Amino acid sequence: PHFVVEFPLSKLTVCFNINGEPGHILRLVSDHKYSGVTVNGKLIGAPAPPGSHKQQRTYFSTITIVVDHPKRAYIEVTPKKVILDGRDRMVLPCHSTVAVDSGALSVSIVGKSNVTVTIGGNISFVILLHQYKNPAPYQRDHLGFYIGQSKGLSHNCHGLLGQFLYEEVGLAELPAQGDMKPSPILKVKGRSVPVVQKSRKIYSGTQSVDCWFARNNAAKLIDGQYEDYMSSHMFDTGDWP
Amino acid sequence: RVPRQVKTILSKETKPHIQELSIKTTIISRYAFTAVYCAMLNRHSAATEGVFQFQVPANAYVSNFTMIIGGRVYQSEVRPKEKRVKQENGKPKNKESGDASPEPEVEVFRMAANIPGRNRAVFLLTYEELLQRRLGRYEHVTSLRPLQLVSRLTLDVTIVDHSPITDLQVLPLRNGRSSSASSSETGPKTPAKPEPPVTTVIKNEKNVCKITFSPNIVQQAKITTNGLLGDFVIRYDVQRDMGIGDIQVLNGHFVHYFAPKDLPVVPKNVVFVIDTSASMLGTKIRQTKDALFTILRDLRPGDRFNFISFSNKIKVWQPNRLVPVTPLNVRDAKKFIYTLATTGGTNIDDAMQTGSSLLRDYLSGPDASPNSVSLIIFLTDGRPTVGEIQSTVILGNTRSAVQEKFCIFTIGIGNDVDYRLLERMALENCGMMRRIHEEADASAMLKGFYDEIGTPLLSDIRINYTEDSVQYVTQHLFTNYFNGSEIVIAGKLTNQSAEILHVQVTASNSDKSIILETDVPLRHRQIETEKHVKAATAAMAGGARTPGSGSMQGLGVALGSIAEDFVERVWGFLSVKDGLRSRLRSQTSKEREDHIQQATNLSLAYHFLTPLTNLVVEKPEVLADGSMAPAPTITPAAGSTASELPGDTEEGEPQKPNGKPGGQTSSVRNTIGKAARRPAKKSITISKTSADGD
Q1: pLDDT in tens, A165-174
Q2: Which residues of chain A lie closer than 8 angstroms to B694, CB-CB?
Q3: What proportions of chain A, in percent to the nearest 5, are helix, strand and coil?
Q4: Is residue B349 within 8 Å of residue B288, measured between CB atoms?
Q5: Are strands B246-250 and B314-316 parallel, antiparallel or unpaired?
Q6: Half-sphere exposure of B354 toward its Cβ, with a 13 Å CA cutoff?
Q7: Which of A173, B110, B374, B586 could form a disulfide with B406 if both were Cys (CB 3.0 to 4.6 A apart)?
Q8: Is residue B537 predicted with pLDDT exceeding 50?
Q9: Does the pLDDT of residue B128 top 60, yes or no?
Q10: Is the pLDDT of residue B187 over 50?
Q11: For chain A, what is the mean pLDDT?
């Protein structure tokens, strides 16, 4: 999947790809100890489009949100259904518009379009439902995960997206060396990350965003490495080591 | 080869012989049309009275009756009933003595006509019914009781549904008093005796299912020689998901079936109010206790409960509270039930007051969960004999005590119950009434009734459709939705060229509020509905025969044309039912008259024989020599009053409306779109921070 991170304070947008393995579960937001929220995403694979030399594609097939406060709840979103598991279980189809509100937690589905999960009024996530009528072999029904509101998440929040919520980044330039032109770098948490300018489509391709792209699976941009973000199961709430 | 014994029975038969009895039912999306064709032969040279008798399910409305005698057609006509005049014995005038069975919920359609000597008579009857979903399935019952051995007996049932048919069951023939044609009964029933092998042919394709039962005369004789074969029962369900439900559109009308699944159970607060008067002694109290022991096991951890027993005295198991379901409380409750002893009279009023105040106090207390469902299950076998005995006063007191805070479900056992009182008590307080026959297995039936209402899934359900796109929507506010049941709403489309119909369902479920919304593409649905009507019509046309020459083709055609308008007829059917219920809840006599007028007009428009209409048939006059007289006489068909709701003959005090969501109806008034507006669609503001497709 491709990731986009907006740094409003720095007025910068950064993007990167994570080429995971099908079946892997990635920790996207991890704030279990503080706000009690964890978001994991499971990857599904599809072959690369014909003619391209790219590796296989990966998409999010399931997104799970674990909420600890005020009551423990598990929300599992797939392109077909949403399972809301709290004190009791509710299975909602994604093809019709449904809203379930229990005060602190609400789940709202706009049929065949998106699922919004709101926690405590100051955290919200939007999951876009990408469903294909006639999918090509390299296409799979999948999900897109967007952070709507993150005020309720703590400064200790981590995960592939969560770790950037309260960060500031700076853009600098590596001076020209020999024939090489000066190249842009991002300054993140004291690390220098080489980036290039790119454009990414978001919100189901309806909008395009210019971003600074960090190569190599976001090496140096993210804390640690890919394996550090792998969860053992969909409802794993393990914290950043 | 017809055995000698059967031949002897046939030769001894003095009444006209039924040569053919064909019953053809088509169920399109739970709406069942049944056509009965009965050909009778008078072998004697003198005119003889032939009696056509058929049990019609209590929930059904007869929609046509025609006789063909001596080559002449006598068509029935539905007319509004005259204003009732109270009879000395309290029975309406036009009720024939032999027409109704002892069970008032069973309608027996009966028509006697003189058949000229050596001549044939053909009786054609049609009735319609919306099958109710109970305990997760629909049940269709056909009474096979021709009262004699029939040369050609066939029963064809075709089920066509928009959704795939699941769990189809054809039960062994049910017989006995407890197995009347009433669709309002619950609990398992046992076949009268082991049946000889009579082939029931079942053809089941995904959305179409055909069941044929045609025992020949020998097979009938092996079951019984008196012609009381029993009830032919079919049960099935259809596939569904947790969506907005199934909406079908046809010729400017729509019908919406809503029965979501996969919903968590809403906890309930339940008070059992049990009659322990002297008449309950013996089997009744034993079976009641058995059922209560089973029910105790089925209570869920989140539920709260209490028991009240009443006779002359009122005993409360746990005074002033409702207790949670814990092993200790269940054990104590068992002890209480075990020690229930029968004595004294029946103080219904005080029992209801005590039960209501228990629930009311609990609901106003700090422990009450705001979204739990509260109900009283009231069981009695008798009329009020102690304390307040006036029905109208008891009903008024109950309404005041309930304060629209909970629902009352009533169960009557046996013949000595004031069912009118129980029905009104339930109807006015968003509940239901059930009847258990004297000889029936009360334990199973009480448990069955509890099972129906023991698992509430949603409360305060409101179903709205696009503002200004619909009118005359039937009841669309419901107090509760129980697991295994189904909510059905129908209405007229004001704008038939509209592309979509927006449907919104709002409801509460334990600690959550739920909103389901969808846009229904009307044109697409119309095409879909037309497609399965065609399938139904094709199924009906298969194997049809012609009246007059011993065939049912005419009926098949008639049913086909009805099927083509089935959505409108569902609307008519539900609107009449709504009107009859609203009549009982009317606050003023003007309101009551209005509801009566509306329901009568609808009954006439759809040719339904309802408690507000009579079916009038011309009857042939047969002269002494066996020939036909020139001018026929007009007779109201018997059985036309058998299904009257309580209150039909009682011009009591005007009643206050229930006011509860489930208690309100909108039979023929446009209330849609005004009460609840569609919420404005929120635009989603989301950051770019995301993880999306590759």
Answers
A1: 998 899 888 8
A2: 1-2, 17, 46, 57-59
A3: 5, 50, 45
A4: no
A5: unpaired
A6: 23
A7: B374
A8: yes
A9: yes
A10: no
A11: 90
Residue B583: half-sphere exposure toward Cβ, Cα within 13 Å = 25
* Confidence grade of residue B662 (pLDDT, cut at 50, 70, 90): very low
- Residue B242 at interface with chain A, using a CB cutoff of 8 Å: yes
pLDDT digits (tens, 9 = 90+) for B224-257: 888 889 999 999 999 886 678 899 999 999 999 9
| Cα B566 from Cα B574, distance rounded (Å) | 12
Nearest to B514 among A1, A6, A99 (CB): A99
Distance, CA of A238 to chain centre: 17
Distances in Å between the alpha carbon of A27 and those of A73, A198, A232, A240, B532?
Answer: 17, 25, 10, 9, 49
Side-chain half-sphere CA neighbours of A240 within 13 A: 20
Residues in chain A closer than 8 A to B512 (CB atoms): 90, 100-102
ipTM: 0.92
As given in the structure block, the two tokens for residue B441 are 């297995």
Question: Contact A3/B691, CB-based, under 8 Å?
Answer: yes
Query: Sheet containing B200-204: which strands, arranged edge to edge?
Result: B200-204, B208-213, B152-160, B17-28, B31-42, B119-130, B61-69, B72-80, B613-619, B633-636
Q: Dihedrals φ, ψ of B446, to 5°?
A: -65, -45
- Coil vs helix vs strand at B637: coil
Within an 8 Å CB–CB cutoff, is residue B687 touching chain A? yes
Rounded Cα gap, residues B235 and B188, in angstroms: 12
| Element containing residue B457 per DSSP (H, E) | strand B456-465
Which of B244, B511, B692 to mutate: most A Cβ within 10 Å? B692
Q: Compute the distance between CA of residue B275 and CA of residue B384 in angstroms, rounded to an integer.
A: 11
3-state secondary structure of A158: strand
What is the average per-residue pLDDT within A69-86? 91
Contact A4 B690 (CB under 8 A): yes
